Amino acid sequence: MKKLIVLLCISALSLSVFAQSEKGHVYLKNGSIIKGKYTYINDGKQLQIESAGNVWIFDAGEVDHIASKRDVKTMFDEETVTDVKWFFRTEMGVLAGNSDNSQSAPFSLTGSANYLVDQNLSVGLGFGVEFLKESYMPVFANFEYRFKNQLSSPYVFLKAGYQVPIEDSNEIYYDVYPIWSSFAPWPQDMGQNGFDCKGGVLINPGLGYQQMLSNGLGINFAVGYQFHRLNYDGENDYSLDIDYNRVTVKIGIIFN
Questions:
Q1: Residue range 2-68, CATH number
Q2: FRET pair for 102, CA 20 to 30 Å: which of 111, 131, 146, 176?
Q3: How many Å apart are CA 248 and CA 107, to the nearest integer?
């Protein structure tokens, strides 16, 4: 009978210890962060942490705070955000639309690093690559606003920047007006040897929807309108501007 009582006591004690054990991040006052399974011992005077096969024991006074696994919030959560303020968004898709001066649906790949100003608003910087008649690197500022403080939420965005050419023009444009045509006779040479790419401004507002899958990973789908004006310089003071008006359709990955 006594053995049975001892076994029951040991079992109860084991269950109690197990129930008190949680997984999370332990933040020490010396700046260290340990991720693992933690348990208070010695009547709460010490904290035992099991991580990667190692066991550490710290005095309770050395612990700054603890974020348990159930308390760890993502950067986009229903409650107050944690220390995570930066997130990265990578997107790929097409610039859909038909026109005489470009492909029907050029491929676009962009990425941005963004900082949460508050729970809903973020600002960031990004760049990428877009394959128009020539290849360009869009460099832009990114502004986003979420409508809900939830893991799933629609959002609006605005990208504004500049298209930087990363290769020479491979097209010859005809019927081009010289920049000084109103001051001099029309020449015979239209500068058919090609034009130098100078890039141009970029504006891309739109609407998206994002879904966080875990603490640091999510996906998104976005559509928008993109305008960019590409500038070219040719021979004999010729200049050419080509305006692109496109619908952007992209899917993306969010991580931190």
A1: 2.30.30.100
A2: 111
A3: 10
